[in-house]
């Protein structure tokens, strides 16, 4: 009897153990929400808008870490809103290609295709592609010269996202900006790719505004506007190991166009390569600013320029298409700016131009180890500076602000 009792107890323990393991497997499997399962019903070459919304709703409600999975394949997506807060860390893993409506069909937010908002401990990952199919929109886009133009769709918006990571995915052919980052904290882009033709209009790669602690690293951006544009209120931004081109370069600004803009500070851009861009690293502010503000603690270091127009540029008279009064000074005070170890080739004779505001000269501008050669045939390489007295160290005379304008 004793032996039988022991055997029965062992059998019960084995069953309980098997059941427990099965439940653990169910919980582990339950942490993954694949949009192509029967529950959600997504299929390649069809619209998965509702399936993705349902999968996100379930994952966001999970009390344990979860993943929304979009497998390999091509899927139509009218729009998507990944909105929190969620109950636990959450990841969206995109392995396939998501295609936006090519004609910009009616959206709940006309300027947004995909939005990530009010999230903490969020990850966007995978080898997939967000294809904005912007070719038609580029032909119709006049926002670069028409302030009253209609809203045009941004591929991805990140709003109030904290402690989060975007890695390995690609933004392709957005109709407007590829990525807009607003009111975010400690958000990292790693191994991120932006791809659009050099003539695509207003397709900034990543635009950052009113955010703190954003980090962009080991990424490749080629587009028709700024590879990275930095708007007002940006603080403690780090950009490293980014390759830029085609595009308009890496820009702080434009600043000073609108009232109630917030200061920019703590910008560190290092170990980047720009190739065949219309500008290099620049700070641009509008003249006749409606309100005063500042841009300070800005540092560009270890930058390679390959056939780049205007490699080093501070422009406080930025006024595209004559939309402003250049006679009135910019009210954006620029200070504590450094350009260090910047080398390569310039496609324009004026390789260094620092044009500061007449009524508000730049302070504490430093240039060290600048080694640029002119690749064209329109004269010799030179520099132009106004309303600034930079500190110069190991810079050739032709690049040392010898020419005053």
TrEMBL record:
Record has Signal as a keyword: yes
Domain of life of the source: Eukaryota
One example GO MF annotation: polygalacturonase activity
Signal peptide (UniProt feature, chain positions): 1-21
Compartment(s) where it occurs, according to its Swiss-Prot or TrEMBL record: Secreted, Cell wall
EC number: 3.2.1.15
InterPro entries membership: Glyco_hydro_28, PbH1, Pectin_lyas_fold, Pectin_lyase_fold/virulence
Active site: 248
GO biological processes: carbohydrate metabolic process; cell wall organization
Keywords: Cell wall, Cell wall biogenesis/degradation, Glycosidase, Hydrolase, Secreted, Signal
Pfam families hit by this protein: Glyco_hydro_28 (PF00295)
Family annotation (PANTHER family): PTHR31375
Similarity comment: family membership: Belongs to the glycosyl hydrolase 28 family.
Protein name: Putative polygalacturonase
Lineage: Eukaryota, Viridiplantae, Streptophyta, Embryophyta, Tracheophyta
